[in-house]
Structure prediction request, 180 residues.
Amino acid sequence: MKCALLAALVLASASGAAAATPDRLRPGLSSTRDMTRFAVGRACLGVIVEGRSLEAAVGKSGFPWKPTPGAFALFGRTPNEVRIDARGQCYFRLKDGDGAALRLEVLGALADAGYRTEPQFDSGPDGRSGGKRYRQETHCARTDAPDARPLMVLISSSPDRGMTPLQVSLWRDRDGKCPA
Prediction:
């Protein structure tokens, strides 16, 4: 009987502790794949296309990132930054994962949101920097939504350790760089 009572008290205190855990300490996005799709589909497109604030777009999946004012760190194994610059360009960077696979997730997240991507420039997967592979590419992203302007997408990715696996910038094509 004493063991059952002790077990009930332990369970009750554990469930109360979980409910009181601050948002900053809750587990976040479960994989770099999830984080990439969230950063593109919810954070960046939420701000650029839907006009939401970055804070609203990130919600409880991140917290203000002190090293960069106005940026948010997305929850995951390591904090990964997403931010909007003064020109309305969304930038995010993932510090771990396979960059070659994550670039496909960026393109997949855009497709899931109804965007068709057209490559404008692609260095290919065998570009080199300091003896390590990287790929840099730009795409136009278009949707059939009424009054939607195309988006420009810059993806830098690397499958090699010691390089940032994925960096992405998205912005509205204000300069007509996407051919008609």
